[in-house]
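Shipment paperwork, digital attachment
Item: protein structure file
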Amino acid sequence: MKQIQIIFCSIIIAFLGIIGVCTLDNKTPSSEDEMRTYTMFPELDYSRMLDVDYLNQIGDAFTDQMEWRWNFVKGYFTLTKDVLKQSTVGDIVIGKDQVLFNKPLEVKSWKKYEKNVKKAAELLNETAAEAAKYGTKMIVIDAPRRDISMPDYTPSYYPDLSEEYEKCLEIQKDTLDDSIEVIDVKQLFEENNPEGDNRYWYYNDHHINCRGGELVLSEIIKIVQKDYPKVQQKTLDDYKIVKRQVYGALNRKIGLTATAPDEELNLIPDGWSIQYERWDDGEKTDKEIFGEDTNTYSLSYMGDNYGETVVKTNQENLPSIYYCGSSFTNILEAMSVPSFKNMYSTDLRFNDTDNTMLDYIKKYQPEYVVFISGQSTATFNYNHVLTHLGLNKGEVDLD
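Attachment content:
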């Protein structure tokens, strides 16, 4: 028995040694499966061997650069989800039909949170008033977390926060100035889909799909048409829709181990085209606004997330629109291009400048700015609003 133990331990040590030796030479910059940048090994510096930050970077790099990493990731989550039948895997909650959710929202004090909702709305009022000086009207999109919009798919133990959401929404609407147009996505989806089969969301990604995008954009177009009746929307009937497996952001966190049917993902203009010039983060690019051969949301719409994107169609007699928020608007940005003279977008979480939303309004002077904050986390949180307006470059709390 002792010999067997020695042999077994020797095999494990040898296996780990092989992984270690192979890993140290790896220099993989990023992962298409996980859609993120990997930590690289720093230059060897013996003088920093007691430096905590240096050691943490080495540890993170070893985890990211580990040989056969993706196989280990998939194996671990397959064991946890399919063999051990865990409904919570890492930060992901597995619901009905393997629909994935983030962990439930945790708020320390709802009374304090509600005060912050009012405070955030007052900040948007101030921002809208400044934007109006440049001829820009503000549209605010209130989009719920998926668990608020898809309660029938959450596990039985998952808390129902719909009442809290509605209360916060009411506080916000009562506080916002009448000059600000509000699009209530939860109400919009419910009114257009009373059966409640949640046809506007992906199975394992927290973004809305093309049908949800079409519906939200139609509300934006209705607002714009009050001033510019000639503005028209390309509907899904104007596109060829490609179904494929969606590598959702939530599924990538668990090694793409959740299964789902093919879903409507890629949009291809059907019998029409739009001429435009595009700049991402100040550099001119020929990147397409619709990705045709991709399995992810962000690459299917606008070709990824950028701090600043400018798309100029120069269609005369049409207004310009500016989206300020997060990847939630990627699909709206892409589908908006045919309807506007110019389309601008910023995600100030990824923007390396010190510019705020108001700075870009001064720069672009669009007729409309569409703002959204923190859809996948806490919709009305004051610190999230600060961050998405470009006024807070630090950490975000849920107080």
